[in-house]
Amino acid sequence: MSQQQKALAAPPKTLGQKIKLVLYIIFFIVLYTWCFSGMEVDVTKVRESLPVAGNIISGIFHVEWPFVTEDEGVIDNMFMTLAIALLGTTIAATLAIPFGFLAATNMSKKNRWVSSVGKRILNVIRTLPELIVAIIFIVAVGPGPFAGVLAIGFHSIGMIGKLYSEAIENMDEGAIEAMTASGANRIQIMWFAVLPQVLPEFMSYALYKFEINVRAASVLGMVGAGGIGTPLLFALIGHDWDRVGAILVGIIVVVMLIDYLSGSIRKRLV
After folding, report:
1. Could you tell me the CA-to-CA distances from 23 to 2, 27, 102, 183 in Å, in that order?
2. Which residues are listed as membrane-spanning (predicted)?
3. Structural domain contains residue 13
């Protein structure tokens, strides 16, 4: 081995590093063994279920195309799903602005507890499962799209607010310091120094969350929150796999279009 190769070669591992590596390997082997032991996998049942799975897959690929365009079909319900996601995201993106400023550490340097409280509130909202939130609103206001909008809107505040606070914390504070030195008040600083910097990122994050919420609204409909999830649930219960296939095609096409359009817009914003 040449002198240069020796210089580039990794130094030999010490005994302590080798022991640590062995312990890590043993730990992960034990961890995954414990995980699989709780699965209670019955190989016989798996083998027996293969023909059933094959029938389901073949049924899904045998798409019921007339259901796509008929009344209360895929197109009508996908428009409802998009409306639920759009309204819910708009509500969340608007309400998340004060939460984002509340949670940003550089907005309350003198009172650190304020940003700490803001972060905890966003953490609590973000940790609540969307389905649980949807069920709560369904019980409160009744099943339907309105419950879906409220569920999407409330749950999205946690994630969007967190992203907003990070955008505020990462902004250039030079403009704030310059306006403060010139005697500008807090409202002027917020309007002319802070918002112009963070608004493009705010819009980008809101669009990104809208992409996610289109998928979420499709699932929330299965618990009664309106949209494409409702006919999907009935099709699954009735084993109408050809109708399930039509619904899945609609969801996939719409989600791909939303992802493409949203991604293009976000590239121009940031």
Report:
1. 34, 6, 44, 61
2. 21-39, 78-103, 131-154, 189-207, 219-238, 244-262
3. no
Domain-embedded: residue 25: no
Per-residue pLDDT tens digits for 140-181: 998 888 999 999 999 999 999 999 999 888 887 777 778 778
Q: For the residues of 97-122, what is the DSSP string, one character each?
A: HHHHHHH-GGG-SS-HHHHHHHHHHH
Residue 138 in any domain: the answer is yes
Q: How far, in Å, are 173, 174, 184 from residue 191 at the CA level?
A: 14, 15, 11
Question: How long a stretch of residues is the chain?
Answer: 270
Q: Is residue 222 part of a domain?
A: yes
* Mean pLDDT over the full length of the chain: 85
Domain span at residue 122?
70-267
In our burial notation (b when 16+ CB lie closer than 10 A, e otherwise), range 188-202 reads ebeeebbeebbeebb
CA dist., res. 187 & res. 105, Å (int): 18
> CA quadruple 124, 126, 129, 131: dihedral positive or negative?
positive
What CATH number corresponds to the domain at position 97? 1.10.3720.10
Fill in the DSSP letter of residue 10.
P
Determine the residue type at 176: I
Q: What angle do CA 179, 182, 188 make, to 5 degrees?
A: 45
Q: What is the pTM of this model?
A: 0.80
Task: Please state, for a pLDDT cut of 70, what percent of the chain lies above it.
Answer: 95
Number of domains comprising the chain: 1
Percent of the chain with pLDDT over 90: 24
